[in-house]
């Protein structure tokens, strides 16, 4: 009897030792056991998250002392139907990660680079394939998501505004395929396998397929606008009946002086920058000729006041949130006193009464161009557009426009003494010729006409004479 008792004790002791050996800790990752089943789900990184790392956790129930390599799968597959033949070797041979299955237990494998490519769209997420680097016996056996415990899972770590977070989830599909049974599906198996099932040839190879559902929430595009108007009473508020100002140049800025985009206001004075990434922006309005900005930040309604700094045209910096459309950034303008300065043909054309701007041209009519008396705003406008009385390639057509603008400037109070001789010469010429005569003029006479035109152009732009209104 004592010998029998001693034998039983020895058997029990050997059994305990054997169990202890098979379930000993794995140095790779001994503290991440997942006893509870993780239902298939999606790992979602919130908007603004900075991806930090990804770790694949798998429980090895039969070690092979072989290297298990990870590869990108390159085509879609379905756990419930995929077979060796239907899969057709759809994976990239590049090794993305690996571990050596030298003991049973949990393994944690760094798959950060692989997951980063899925999240940023560098390649499609069809999952990863696990296989032995060197095919041989025995195989590596791992728990699948169908197992009663210790299921595979993915851990994603990220930060939002510097605060770190880690989340985990189970696979949406995992199975193995077997070359020896090329048309059989093993999606129901509680195991995942890699390597050979026996000591024979490569026809016994097994490979594991596993896929996790991941997404990075992308920020929604933002937009900013909205309005430039003529502040007729100069109070800094959009009053009823005050018109919008078309064709005003507007810059989108990055708050550090860099221009990101440029647009112009439409016929109603509206502008919009859309499809913007959330972030910090400001607006710079470019003053049209002879205008000044009205008072800034008047009243309590941001949507109805002027936001442009009167000295720079810049607004303050604002932060656009994801999906936000901010239509509160406006600029009010009014016509400055000319004070003896000059304006270009563009200004006089835009202020002939055929747009939202006030008609300031008609008060200076009639004006003579040679023996042609310009008595109404429509005729003046047609001359300034250079499209009715000839074409811009016609030197006399251009002379009409620049000379009319020069005389309008002088009628408005600008000193014309610097161009008095040229005015006299142009009047004398235009008393004899009109725009229909251009092609018949000698080259010498055409050159003289172009020189007169250029002199008036320089005067209107402020290069000679009293100076341009925007420079004073």
Any overview of this molecule?
By secondary structure, the protein is α+β, with helices and mostly antiparallel strands. 20% of the residues lie in helices and 28% in strands. It is built from 8 helices and 23 strands. A hairpin with a 2-residue loop joins β22 (367-369) and β23 (372-374). α6 runs parallel beside α8 (443-460) and α7 (420-430) crosses α8. The chain is elongated and about 110 Å long. The relative contact order is 0.09. Residues 1-36 have low confidence and may be disordered.
Question: Summary?
Answer:
The protein is an alpha+beta fold and 472 residues long. 20% of the residues lie in helices and 28% in strands. The chain folds into three domains: 190 residues, no CATH class; 114 residues, Sandwich (Immunoglobulin-like); 127 residues, no CATH class.
The average pLDDT score comes to 88
Strand fraction band? 25-35%
Largest sheet: 11 strands, antiparallel
> Helicity, in percent?
10-25%
Cα end-to-end separation: 121 Å
Q: Got a strand count?
A: 23
Rg over CA atoms, rounded to whole Å, is: 40 Å
Number of domains: 3
Structural class: alpha+beta
Number of helices: 8
**Residue ranges: pLDDT <50 for 5 or more in a row?**
1-36
| Form type | elongated
Give the helix/strand layout.
Elements: H1 2-22, E1 42-45, E2 50-62, E3 67-72, H2 84-87, E4 97-100, E5 105-110, H3 112-119, E6 128-132, E7 140-143, E8 153-160, E9 163-169, E10 173-178, E11 191-196, E12 205-211, E13 213-216, E14 222-230, E15 249-253, E16 259-264, E17 273-276, E18 279-285, E19 291-293, E20 318-320, E21 325-335, H4 345-350, E22 367-369, E23 372-374, H5 377-385, H6 395-411, H7 420-430, H8 443-460
Parallel strand pairs: 1-13, 14-21
Antiparallel strand pairs: 2-5, 2-7, 2-8, 3-4, 3-6, 6-12, 7-11, 8-9, 10-12, 11-12, 14-17, 15-16, 15-18, 18-20, 19-21, 22-23
Helix pairs in contact: 5-6, 6-8, 7-8
């Amino acid at each position: 009897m004592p010998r029998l008792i001693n034998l039983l004790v020895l058997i029990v002791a050997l059994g305990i030792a054997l169990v202890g050996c098979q379930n000993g800790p794995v140095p790779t990752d001994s503290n991440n056991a997942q006893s509870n089943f993780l239902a298939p789900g999606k790992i979602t990184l919130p908007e603004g998250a900075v991806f930090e790392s990804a770790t694949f956790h798998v429980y090895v129930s039969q070690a092979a002392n072989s290297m298990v390599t990870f590869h990108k799968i390159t085509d879609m597959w379905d756990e419930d139907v995929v077979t060796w033949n239907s899969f057709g070797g759809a994976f990239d041979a590049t090794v993305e990660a690996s571990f050596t299955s030298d003991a049973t237990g949990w393994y944690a494998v760094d798959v950060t680079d692989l997951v980063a490519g899925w999240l940023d769209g560098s390649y499609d997420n069809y999952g990863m394939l696990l296989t032995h680097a060197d095919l041989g016996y025995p195989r590596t056996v791992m728990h699948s998501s169908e197992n009663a415990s210790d299921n595979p899972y993915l851990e994603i770590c990220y930060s939002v505004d510097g605060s770190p977070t880690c989340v985990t989830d189970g696979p949406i599909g995992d199975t193995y395929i077997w070359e020896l049974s090329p048309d059989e599906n093993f999606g129901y198996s509680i195991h995942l396998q890699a390597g050979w099932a026996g000591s024979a040839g490569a026809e016994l190879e097994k490979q594991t397929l596993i896929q996790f559902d991941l997404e990075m929430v992308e920020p929604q595009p933002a937009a900013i606008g909205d309005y430039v108007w003529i502040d007729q009473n100069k109070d800094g508020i959009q009053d009823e009946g005050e018109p919008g100002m078309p064709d005003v140049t507007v810059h989108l800025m990055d708050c550090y002086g860099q221009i990101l985009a440029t647009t112009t206001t439409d016929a109603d004075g509206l502008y919009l920058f859309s499809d913007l990434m959330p972030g910090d922006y400001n607006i710079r309005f470019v003053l049209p000729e002879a205008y000044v900005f009205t008072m800034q930040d008047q009243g309590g309604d941001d949507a109805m006041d002027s936001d442009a700094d009167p000295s720079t045209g810049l607004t303050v910096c604002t932060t656009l949130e994801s999906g936000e459309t901010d239509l509160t950034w406006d600029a009010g303008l009014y016509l400055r006193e000319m004070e003896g300065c000059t304006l270009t043909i563009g200004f006089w054309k835009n202020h002939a009464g055929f747009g939202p701007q006030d008609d300031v041209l008609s008060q200076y009519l009639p004006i003579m161009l040679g023996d042609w008396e310009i008595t109404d705003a429509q005729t003046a406008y047609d001359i300034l557009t250079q499209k009715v009385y000839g074409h811009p390639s016609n030197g006399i057509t251009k002379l009409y426009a620049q000379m009319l603008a020069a005389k309008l400037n002088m009628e408005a109070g600008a000193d014309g003494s610097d161009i008095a001789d040229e005015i006299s010469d142009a009047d004398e010429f235009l008393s004899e010729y009109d725009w229909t005569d251009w092609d018949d003029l000698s080259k010498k006479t055409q050159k003289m006409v172009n020189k007169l035109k250029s002199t008036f152009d320089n005067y209107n732009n402020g290069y000679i004479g009293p100076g341009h209104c925007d420079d004073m």
